[in-house]
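Lab meeting, item 3. Inverse folding demo.
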């Protein structure tokens, strides 16, 4: 309201002063004046005149007022000098510089713009929001009231009169001073059908500062906890911090309180998610057992800048019992909270510092783990890392290539099992030269000294310390062949890597802490040391041969492939078959891909047996984005020979959405374990979407089992409204 009043008043300043005006019946007239040296107001109309008896200025016919980018149009406009009232009538339209349009049949305001009203008022924003009311009144400088109001963000096409959703209210009020919208007798409508009624509803002006207040509640039902109602409240403590307090009431179990805290400092920020309750344990059917006690969880993280090169941070993940997160459906278990990311069902708490500049990098961390899948002595065998540190410094040697020095240290402490300390210092050198004939040569050399100190290691004998020196020297050779064409360009690049390393580097009795899970594939095929981590090292003589091929079409299509295999001079028993470094010959490894841009993208990584060429492992991913079909499909298979567990694995992961019409769509998601013939998770649903809303109804089935928590079914209802927010039911089993 304040905007259109300002427009009218400033546009009429010139007409309040003595001006020269052309007058006459059906005669075009134009009035222009300067209200101040820097302001210019232009009023045009078919006819403009002054009624001396009534002391009124009148403009009629195609009235248009322009001021500072705002344009007001109306059929007629009057200014009464006695009452200081301004009135615009007939098809009143105000166009703001930002594109907002305001409409009314009649607008009246006083000269100082403190009060006014509009009849048959409506507005439309550039974002598509639309509001309308029988009348709009502004009083007391800050109070704006709409009578019989309706609001929606849906755009109406020609011939349509009913939006997908709308809010109707007997009265809507905007208080400029408090920055709040409030509604009386509000009714939420879908396709013109009333869905629910609220006697009172309020929310902040989207342009206003953050403030405290109730958030949208969540209502649902679960076989574990029964009917539930969650009511969040946000406490805006300051411009830089807030706290969301969300108590949840259940029909089967005691209430739970969840807290979300955020604070931003000049050098960083802190986030924390906490919940607590006093209750017994319960299973998937809500049957209780055990003793009542306080239970809860803490997920928190923070990051702070020390200076332009250094920062420090922390991440905390703790729960009172292993299945607490699953029982209460707590979100955020696998979020990134620091330098390191945990695995599913493993909680990680970390404190770290990190530094980086143009030629050096350093970090140091303290890590503790809590495996929610293990109990008792198995849990005690998980090591705490106190601490873990890395340092690297790079040197540019100009024509002689590049070099770096590295250092690393790790101290592992266990409640049960081997404690170990490792310190490593090493150096690397590489260069790149183009030899005659276009051969690209990359000579390299690396060396490292490791010192270990451990206790309670079964095969250590009488010695508690081990020292070793390892290294490799060799070169990578490649010869790119490029063939440009009218429709397709082809690049072929044979690659060879040959290296000589220290003999039998893994003969010393060392605990393998950081190299349990790795596999030689196409990304590490041409590395001098194919092992990851520090505890295992690939020495001796080795040769890797492969080929990289790429075909690029002029229309953007790209087909690529890379693969090869690796030979070793001697077999190292420290490497098992899953690492693909066992024996003297590796399996064949390759990656194939087809990239058609946004429409289609497919890739596959394969591992073929070195003797039979049988597929030992395959990982595929396909992304499809056609006109009405969107899908992500993944398939994986590992034979029992290449898995750490010794069990064959096979499965498929699918996420898909198919638009049946322009507005209606079907959703199908599947995560299936083919080897065990069970669906880890499956969901099927349908939905509706348009320019202002999205609705989804999904049925989900999970066959996961974890102790007393078993398979579950759920129905999920979600919907999102443009400019209003997201609503949804809690999953119920």
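The presenter then showed the designed sequence:
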């Amino acid at each position: 309201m304040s905007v259109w009043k300002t427009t009218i008043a400033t546009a009429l300043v010139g007409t309040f002063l003595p001006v020269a005006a052309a007058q006459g019946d059906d005669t075009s007239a134009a009035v222009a004046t300067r209200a101040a040296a820097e302001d210019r107001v232009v009023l045009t109309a078919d006819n403009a005149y002054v009624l001396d008896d009534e002391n009124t200025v009148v403009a009629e016919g195609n009235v248009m007022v322009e001021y500072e980018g705002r344009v007001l149009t109306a059929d007629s406009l009057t200014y009464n000098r006695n009452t200081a009232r301004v009135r615009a009538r007939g098809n009143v339209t105000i166009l703001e510089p930002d594109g907002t349009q305001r409409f009314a049949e009649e607008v009246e305001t006083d000269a100082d713009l403190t009060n006014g009203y509009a009849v048959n008022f409506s507005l439309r924003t550039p974002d598509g929001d639309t509001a309308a009311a029988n009348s709009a009144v502004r009083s007391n400088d800050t109070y704006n009231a709409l009578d019989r109001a309706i609001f929606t963000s849906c755009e109406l096409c020609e011939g349509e009169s009913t939006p997908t959703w709308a809010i109707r209210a007997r009265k809507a009020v905007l208080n400029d001073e408090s920055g709040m919208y409030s509604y009386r007798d509000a009714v939420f409508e879908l396709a013109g059908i009333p869905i629910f009624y609220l006697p009172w509803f309020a929310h902040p002006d989207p342009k206003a500062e953050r403030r405290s207040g109730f958030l949208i509640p969540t209502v649902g039902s679960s076989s574990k906890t029964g009917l539930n109602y969650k009511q969040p409240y946000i406490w805006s403590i300051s411009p830089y911090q807030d706290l969301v307090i969300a108590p949840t009431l259940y029909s089967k179990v005691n209430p739970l309180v969840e807290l979300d805290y955020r604070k931003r400092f000049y050098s960083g920020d802190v986030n924390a998610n906490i919940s607590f309750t006093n209750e017994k344990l319960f299973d998937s059917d809500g049957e209780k057992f055990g003793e009542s006690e306080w239970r809860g969880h803490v997920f928190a993280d923070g990051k702070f800048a020390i200076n332009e090169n250094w920062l420090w941070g922390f991440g905390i993940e703790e729960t009172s019992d292993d299945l607490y997160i699953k029982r209460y459906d707590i979100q955020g278990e696998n979020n990134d909270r620091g330098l390191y990311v945990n695995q599913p069902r493993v909680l990680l708490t970390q404190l770290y510092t990190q530094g980086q500049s143009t030629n050096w990098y350093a970090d140091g961390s303290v890590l503790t783990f809590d495996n929610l899948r293990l109990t008792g002595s198995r849990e005690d065998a998980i090591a705490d890392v106190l601490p873990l540190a890395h340092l690297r410094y790079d040197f540019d040697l100009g024509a002689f290539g590049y070099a770096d020095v590295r250092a690393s240290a790790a101290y592992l402490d266990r409640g049960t099992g081997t404690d170990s300390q490792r310190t490593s210092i090493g150096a690397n050198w590489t260069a790149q030269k183009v030899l005659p004939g276009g051969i690209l040569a990359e000579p390299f050399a690396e060396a490292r000294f490791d010192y270990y100190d451990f206790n309670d290691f079964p095969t250590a004998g009488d010695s508690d310390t081990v020292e070793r020196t390892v290294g490799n020297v060799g070169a990578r050779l490649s010869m790119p062949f490029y063939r440009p064409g009218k429709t397709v360009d082809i690049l072929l690049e044979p690659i060879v890597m040959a290296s000589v390393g220290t003999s039998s580097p893994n003969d010393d009795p060392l605990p393998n802490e950081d190299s349990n899970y790795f596999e030689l594939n196409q990304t590490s095929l041409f590395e001098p040391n194919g092992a990851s981590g520090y505890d295992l090292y690939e020495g001796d003589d080795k040769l890797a041969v492969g080929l990289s091929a790429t075909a690029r079409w002029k229309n953007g299509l790209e087909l690529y492939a890379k693969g090869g295999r690796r030979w070793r001079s001697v077999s190292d028993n420290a490497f098992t078959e899953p690492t693909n470094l066992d024996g003297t010959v590796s399996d064949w490894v390759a990656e194939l891909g087809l990239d058609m841009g946004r429409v289609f993208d497919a890739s596959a990584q394969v591992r073929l047996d070195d003797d039979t060429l049988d597929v030992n492992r395959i990982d595929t991913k396909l992304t499809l984005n056609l006109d009405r079909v969107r899908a992500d499909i993944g398939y994986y298979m590992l034979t029992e020979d290449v898995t750490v567990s010794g069990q064959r694995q096979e499965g498929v992961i699918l996420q898909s959405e198919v638009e049946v019409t322009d507005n209606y769509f079907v959703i199908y998601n599947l995560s299936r374990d083919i080897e065990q013939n069970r669906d880890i998770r499956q969901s099927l649903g349908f939905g509706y979407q348009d320019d202002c809303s999205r609705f989804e109804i999904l049925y989900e089935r999970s066959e996961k089992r974890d102790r007393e928590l078993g398979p579950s079914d759920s129905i999920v209802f979600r919907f999102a409204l443009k400019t209003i927010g997201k609503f949804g039911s809690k999953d119920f089993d």
